Automatic annotation (TrEMBL):
Keyword Hydrolase attributed: yes
Protein name, as recorded: Imidazole glycerol phosphate synthase subunit HisH
Catalytic reaction equation(s): 5-[(5-phospho-1-deoxy-D-ribulos-1-ylimino)methylamino]-1-(5-phospho-beta-D-ribosyl)imidazole-4-carboxamide + L-glutamine = D-erythro-1-(imidazol-4-yl)glycerol 3-phosphate + 5-amino-1-(5-phospho-beta-D-ribosyl)imidazole-4-carboxamide + L-glutamate + H(+); L-glutamine + H2O = L-glutamate + NH4(+)
InterPro entries per record: Class_I_gatase-like, GATASE, Imidazole-glycPsynth_HisH
Matches recorded under CDD domains: GATase1_IGP_Synthase
Domain of life from the UniProt record: Bacteria
Subunit text: Heterodimer of HisH and HisF.
Record keywords, A-Z: Amino-acid biosynthesis, Cytoplasm, Glutamine amidotransferase, Histidine biosynthesis, Hydrolase, Lyase
């Protein structure tokens, strides 16, 4: 099985790669369109802001490449947000693969933005990506923008209200948290993705 990490400049690429190595998969880091198209699985990692993230994909000529993929694709953190239609962060048009808008958390007493740290996952449907995920399993988050709960939501998390923690539409999937930093739960979900 060939797995590629899209080299879109995310600072979490190294840790995602190590997490995959622990599962016995050596993922190639690439921005080569042909290599991305030929892979069995594609992962779009990302840490940072939506505007620069999309600008980097445009620079590399990868926007239409990613949109055309038919194999399982996983966006992680910012990578998940870039799969959506639009982000309020910098008023950015994203890839438009999942019909959702990304909005900033509302600041409120006792709720710090960014949302940073461990929080519980709540599966809202059954899906192969969630195999063996239990209600209340913990995952590690670092983000200021979130995708609301919608028809594409597989699992949610509560932080001053519910938001999407895991999403999917057709062959495109996203995890808002960092599976590579989420211990055994993250490893389990990455393994599930590799088995799709």
């Amino acid at each position: 099985m060939s797995v590629v990490l899209v080299d879109a400049g995310g600072t979490n690429i190294g840790s995602v790669r190590y997490a995959l190595q622990r599962l016995g998969v050596d993922a190639a880091l690439t921005s080569d369109a042909a290599q991305i198209r030929a892979a069995d699985k594609v992962i779009l990692p990302g840490v940072g802001a939506a505007g620069p993230g999309m600008a980097r994909l445009r620079e590399l000529g990868l926007v239409d490449v990613i949109r055309s993929l038919t194999q399982p694709v996983l966006g992680v953190c910012l990578g998940m947000q870039l799969l959506c239609a639009h982000s309020a962060e910098g008023d950015t048009d994203c890839l438009g693969l999942i019909p959702a808008s990304v909005n900033r958390f509302e600041e409120a007493p006792g709720l710090c933005v960014p949302h940073m740290g461990w929080n519980r996952l709540s599966p809202v449907t059954t899906h192969p990506l969630l195999k063996h995920l239990e209600q209340g399993d913990w995952a590690y988050f670092v983000h200021s923008y979130a995708v609301p709960v919608g028809a594409y939501t597989l699992a949610s998390t509560d932080y001053g209200g519910g938001f999407s923690a895991v999403i999917a539409s057709a062959n495109f999937h996203g995890m808002q948290f960092h599976p590579e930093r989420s211990a055994s739960v993250g490893a389990k979900l990455l393994k599930n993705f590799l088995e799709l």
